[in-house]
Write a structure and sequence with these properties.
Elements (H helix, E strand, L loop, with lengths): L10 H6 L16 H17 L3 H9 L3 H17 L8 H6 L6 H19 L1 H23 L13
Helix pairs in contact: 2-3, 2-4, 2-6, 6-7
The protein binds protoporphyrin IX containing FE.
The site of protoporphyrin IX containing FE has 22 residues, from helix 3, helix 4, helix 5, helix 6 and helix 7.
Length: 157
């Protein structure tokens, strides 16, 4: 890269220039930051009152919900809009949550499928659900799998 206007131009400059990756495409053109915000707000409002999932979130996030919501909006913005806003490590964050049982992932996905279809519409929800299932599988594997396990069918619909 040329640092001053006095540096002579060379074609080598162009050849060596590392072009940063441009913004990548959203998983569906109708998904916006506003839609993601609505999806995240609705999902966690429902998760908080779901009899089994509610306490798993509330016990951990008491007094920390605003931080969690902000993080989750960035997370879904990164997954669905490829915005790169989320910087974090979901696997270790869930490894310490020892109260989570295998079947809780089924409940989580059930709620996510329903909520995303409602908020995003069936067509845009489809790639969002696939992404959620993929990540849920990684989290489930990290927490529960032995090398010989297959992921449960309900993680992959
Ligand atoms: C059984 C299902 C699940 C439960 C009960 C659960 C619960 C939680 C809780 C309590 C936290 C907050 C941890 C903390 O800040 O101390 C958290 C963080 C998070 N969860 Fe989940 N989770 C579940 C599944 C998932 C799935 C399937 C995804 C993604 C598709 C996900 C994505 C995240 C992310 C990105 C964070 C933030 C991690 C960070 O700190 O950077 N979770 N989860």
């Amino acid at each position: 890269m040329r640092e001053t206007n006095n540096t002579p131009y060379s074609h080598a400059d162009d050849a060596l220039r590392v072009v940063p990756a441009g913004p990548r495409d959203p998983v569906h053109p109708s998904i916006t930051e506003d839609k993601i915000s609505e999806l995240v707000e609705t999902f966690y409002a429902r998760a908080q009152v779901e009899p089994r999932l509610g306490p798993l979130f509330n016990d951990r996030l008491d007094g920390k919900w605003p931080v969690h919501m902000d993080k989750m909006k960035k997370f879904w913005s990164s997954v669905l809009l490829k915005s790169g806003k989320y910087k974090g490590k979901p696997i270790p964050a869930h490894m310490v949550l020892t109260e989570i049982k295998s079947d809780d992932f089924r409940l989580w996905l059930e709620l996510f499928r329903k909520t995303s279809i409602e908020i995003l519409g069936e067509e845009a929800a489809s790639p969002a659900i696939r992404a959620a299932e993929r990540i849920a599988q990684s989290l489930w594997m990290a927490k529960f799998a032995t090398p010989f396990d297959e992921v449960p069918e309900w993680l992959n619909q």
